[in-house]
Design a protein that fits this description.
With 151 residues, this protein is mainly α. The protein has 7 helices and no strands.
Length: 151
């Protein structure tokens, strides 16, 4: 489903002559193609699944946020703005992000559901969260909340 949305977005961007959207979607499609090729060596000839695509989107957004911080430190506001616009384009393809309160509730429910007691159980909790909520939450925040609950 995400692949067709990306293709449609590329066509729409080309029609409307939206250079930022076209460029960003092309970057996404190139990264997706690279991941598909890498998956072939593991026997997956159909390409990566949507949950892996969402993880790819999250990593792309994280890279851009790091670039924004560096550009702003260097006084390159125009490049930081470009990165922000790319984040906006990528986020169009992601599901609605959970609020902080929703993340806290989900973390609490997951910790209780798998009966996690110590920090040794943190990996199990994070694995469940990533499986159920890929692309819907910031796992950096979730990780710190899990650590607080298990400490």
């Amino acid at each position: 489903m995400l692949r067709s949305r990306l293709s449609d977005a590329l066509k729409d961007g080309l029609r409307s002559k939206d250079e930022r959207s076209v460029g960003t979607v092309r970057l996404i499609l190139a990264a997706l193609k690279d991941r598909d090729i890498a998956a072939r060596s593991k026997g997956n000839y159909d390409g990566i699944a949507d949950d892996e695509i969402l993880q790819m989107f999250n990593s792309m957004i994280k890279q851009r946020r790091e670039s924004i911080a560096l550009y702003e430190q260097g006084g390159r506001c125009e490049l930081a703005q470009k990165e922000k616009e790319e984040i906006d384009v990528i986020q169009r393809f992601m599901p609605k992000q959970m609020s902080d309160a929703e993340v806290e509730a989900v973390v609490g429910d997951t910790v209780a559901a798998i009966e996690a007691k110590t920090l040794k159980d943190m990996g199990k909790v994070m694995a469940v969260l990533k499986e159920k909520f890929a692309g819907q939450m910031d796992f950096t925040k979730a990780s710190s909340l899990v650590k607080q609950r298990l400490s």
